[in-house]
């Protein structure tokens, strides 16, 4: 019985090879042998594994010769892709892109089909599926992307996740997989639009990754798409928690891909509406995120027109967080509680915007009300910094050490930013490493060395009135003047004797020493 089955299988395989030979020999006239091709298609239903494997390679080979039977051949090839036998399945998947060589109109449809196979189990199967998609992308990028994105949008969760992962991976290496991307403007526009559309229905982490890839294609258009999603034209409502959270999440993504050549007017105009009602925001976390976003936005670029949009709001808000009463004591023993995180952001914002409008802080009333408060803030910063530097952190946990380090950086930044504003003339600080951006990965408990040098020259009021007297140091003579010094005598070069005694050097009693001559010693 086993011999009979094996013989029948061999007979079926030989029959397929004969039909293949007829079609191959016919070349361009293969379409005339319709019966042989239909016989190959019918073998899929009740053929053996060996026959199905042959069919998986024969069907794509003559697909273009039978346009009237392309739909049946297409479905037959897909049936083979679902076979449990791995060898048949892999051979059928490899043949899918070949079907599109005969009819490029099938690329979008085929891409959609292959995208559904991306979650397939097995490393080898996944590699084959991805390679097939890459082949379609090289044939017609736009059509292949249409099919892929249709599954990312409408497929099941596994297909969506695998499709996004594949898309991000290949676009990130665009020079290899999309060589025409840099020169094909319609394709660049299409891709950024599609990535923006995908991002709107994704999680925050996926959105960040998609915008990262989109910015690599067209940075300016990506920033425009993000700001559109932020809805900056909508009036700011301090009680709308959902809108505030969305703005706080999208702002870092926008600023990450913003360049100094792009205008920040839209963002600063929006911040101009936030600052007057800032105190009405109930969540302190939202408040600090907004102020940090304001500072980072201003660190990119700002013009005189942009500065005028929010300069008054910055000054008014800063003044509300400065101490109301300033004690006359020079030494601050018990400083008041100040929000240095807010002060760091607002002082930087004032430095950046006021530098574009130099006359703003030269107003006598502003100088009179601001200078004493900033001087007191300077003394408070010094007091807090000394406490942090002098605190015992040997037994602190790593998280606590990092917290103290960031607090110390915040105090130093606040001190430097305030110091410049009360200097004469005013020194505007525009380059600052924000405390929330300090790398705390490798922080140890020995980090309490000044992050900002304490030896920098500050305003006159913060420097001591007199310098400590230095002990006189005797002037040292140059080595050339120390002729009698014992070290100099020891370093003098030996001079051999001259005259009648010099001829006896190397001899004993005026005669040559044979032992010395035969066994020379080196000194």
**Beta strands, count:** 2
Shape: elongated
Q: Which structural category fits the helices and strands?
A: mainly alpha
User: Treating each run of at least 4 consecutive H or I residues as one helix, how many helices?
Assistant: 22
Q: Which residues form runs of ≥5 with pLDDT under 50?
A: 1-10, 447-471, 477-483, 485-494, 499-523
Strand order of the largest sheet: 1-2
Question: Major sheet, described briefly?
Answer: 2 strands, antiparallel
The helix content, as a percent range, equals 55-70%
Element string (H = helix, E = strand)? HHHHHHHHHHHHHHHHHHHHHEEH
Outline of the structure:
By secondary structure, the protein is mostly helical.
